[in-house]
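Write out this protein's structure.
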Amino acid sequence: MTFNTSGSYAVSLTVSDGSTNSTKSVPNYITTTGSALPLSEGFEGADNPPIGWKNIDNGTPGITWAKVNSAGGFGLSTYSMMFDNYSWNYPGEKDELYVKRVNFSSFSTIKLKFDVAYQVFSGYSDSLAVLVSTDCGATFTKVYQKGGTVLSSAGSGGNNFVPTAAQWRTDSVLLNSFTGQQNVLIAFQNINGYGNKLYLDNINITGICTAPALPAISATSTNLCIGQSTTITVASGSLNSALNWNWYSGSCGGPLVGAANSITVSPAASTTYFVRGEGGCVTPGSCTSIPIIVNSLPVVNASNVSGCSGTPISLSGLPAGEPLVCPIPITALQQAIPIVTPIITVAAPHHPRQS
């Protein structure tokens, strides 16, 4: 089964005995969107690996990451995850520990931090890599790899390494190139070199939520007549961690009139419009506003409309003394000046009597 769109999906099971069917449905049973940040895992729970995590045994069966109680990060906990390279002589073999899927869609800065402990066994070198996938594990991008003395947190030593509290190190990786992704899979990959035991603990993934910038906005026109429209646009400003520009009328956070970079409005009266970045991890803040003035159509009054042909007609408009912003509609003139259809009488021509 393939899901091409991120989201949550129901599952139904139908059982039939040939004549009667029984169906059980469970809503939101399958989700293709990763867990929200932050993620923190210290392996102190009962599950091995933790719920949502997965051991990937790519090579020799049974050789995988294992939860152990022989050492915890910096001596501050009981458990950690360990790969026993010391006991297995399969150079180049790669096995992964998959972190449960996470959602990066709301963050502009994302950091992975983890505690690692490793000691080089003379003449042998193991490696640790961190891989990231945004297509459910079909392909991976390597974002971290250290091996041998570079990976070591405790120099070189003897066999069967068990770290002391002082033999741990914290490493970190920025994952900003994956911002906006809703379904991110991270894998810790052990690359065997028949060297020594490798330990991981306190895996943390955090996102830095950056508030949107206060935008600058513009309009095709801020002075309208009734019935006209204008397009208001965010001219500049970054959403950062927000997801949408939300537009409101009357007040910041008032009636929502649109969620886009620009909106087209045709207000019936003068209205102030507000916009701000919202969604994702951000807390809604201040808005930028722009007033749109709507001018009434002029009212036309006429006098002397019943005079004879050639009699001047006097027109007056409201509001008096104000500049004419909106054109006088022809319907207003037609209502003010009745259109009279003349009645024309044609008499027969008169000819003198002939004698």
